[in-house]
Amino acid sequence: MESSYYNKNLYSKLEFWAIKNPNKTFIYDTQSSIHLSYFETKNIVDNIIFYLSDKKHTIMFIDENNTLSSILWIAALSGGHRIIPLHSQVSEADLEKLIEYFNPDLFITNRTSDIIDKVKTIIKEEDLLYNLKKSKSIGEIRDEGIVYLTTSGSTGTPKKIALKESQLYNTALNVVKVHESKENDVCLNFLSFSHINAPVIALFSTLISGGTIINSKFSKTNFWKITTELKVTWVNAVPTIINILLETNHNKKSNIGFIRTGSAPISKNIITKFEKKFDIPIIETYGATESCSQITANNKNLRKIGSVGKPQGLELIICNKDKDILEELDSNTVGEVCIKGFSVIKKYEDKGFENNFINGFFKTGDLGYKDKDGFIFLTGRKKDIIISKGENIYPKEIEDTLIKYEGINEVAVIGEKDDILGERVVAFIVLEDKYDFKEEHFNNWIEARLSKYKIPHKLLFVEDFPRLRSYKIDKMKLREYIDDKKTI
């Protein structure tokens, strides 16, 4: 370990709240009914830090227990270790590749596997949580921890990313600022700790502000009961959850101040319907693993529906997507979103992706524009552009139009190769339950709203979409489905 000390961001906050509010619940898990106060959490973190204090470990764990995952993120990073969190549904093939690449010396899991057996030390979850006993002071913590994550792979092979604790903390601090978080806030989190969102947006921001985080599996039937009984003040969710909640009813005044959504686009139509029905603001945000999650966010008191908000704690410019130089575009002009800042990576761990960085900026691959007030509006992915008969077609524009049609619950638009046109537009659609779709009525409706070359050549109906672990629709997988579906 390096000889110089660093600012122990996460541990210092845990220590502070364990002294100020020792008995206050910090983490509550609805699945296991585990309550951990700030004082109890600090004791467990101390035990783990002391247990791992012999050297700098490379720790791999599978996110199967939200309580353990929460503790591990804090303890391992605070102790100066390297961690690689994995999704609970990680395949054996992916597991083998990741173990070979990262070479962990410690694996924390209850899963049995011949591949995991190759790791030097394996610890069961409950042993780490409950059976470790701190025998002496943890002493000074030197160096800061690092988390290694992979991108969702929405446009190709997942890329590996290294993020330092100080970068994660900095982003979480900006989340606290935009949320205006306080000690009495209670966050309900449904997202996995194998991805960047839950640790930074929900866990670390709660730790900084001294609030309470509730980890839970989403339940359509229990959502309103949980949020009422546990006095939830904000919810960390994704658009899919908001779509499902529209099918529920709740007539009582809710404690929920806002629902934060990210990871995937959400239409104005869905937001308007939800807010009219429940009188709860939907806060649109935008983030990436490469930026420790949050890039932009709306504030509940200052927002524009349809916009992902303003940049939070970093510099963002809209660049000319067709040039290899950094050329900033004027307001209301669509280009590629480029970002830089303390929490933004400067490179990938893999080689061969140097073109993703220019003059200190990371080129996100997302397309959008900035309005005169500084709000960012996303229009799609650079690699998702459909080129038909020489015309650039942006899938998000079509998705935003189709979602307004009665009976359409969710939609994803992609391009299908065509020998004459280059590509043709294909729309995958999830309908509301038992909705009777009328082709003739739809055709008349869409022709009045989209130029002819933007109207989908095929409408393919599915019950649900394949999704990446980041909850985004897996459009690469959808492309494999085109030939297997019937057209209308």
How would you describe the overall organization of this protein?
By secondary structure, this protein is an alpha/beta fold. The chain folds into two domains: 9-282, ANL, N-terminal domain (Rossmann fold); 385-484, GMP Synthetase, Chain A, domain 3 (2-Layer Sandwich). The chain is 27% helix and 26% strand. It is built from 13 helices and 25 strands. Helix 1 (9-20) crosses helix 2, helix 2 (38-51) packs across helix 3 (66-78) and helix 6 crosses helix 7 (197-209). It is globular and about 70 Å long.
Profile the largest sheet.
Answer: 9 strands, mixed
* CATH architecture name of the largest domain: 3-Layer(aba) Sandwich
CATH class of the largest domain: Alpha Beta
Fourth-level CATH superfamily of the largest domain: ANL, N-terminal domain
Number of helices: 13
- The CATH topology label of the largest domain is Rossmann fold
Low-confidence stretches: 1-6
Please report the distance between the alpha carbons of the first and last residues.
63 Å
Give the overall shape, derived from the CA principal axes.
globular
Multimer state: single chain
Average predicted local confidence, pLDDT: 88
Q: Percent range for helical residues?
A: 25-40%
Radius of gyration in whole Å, from Cα? Answer: 23 Å
User: What number of domains?
Assistant: 2
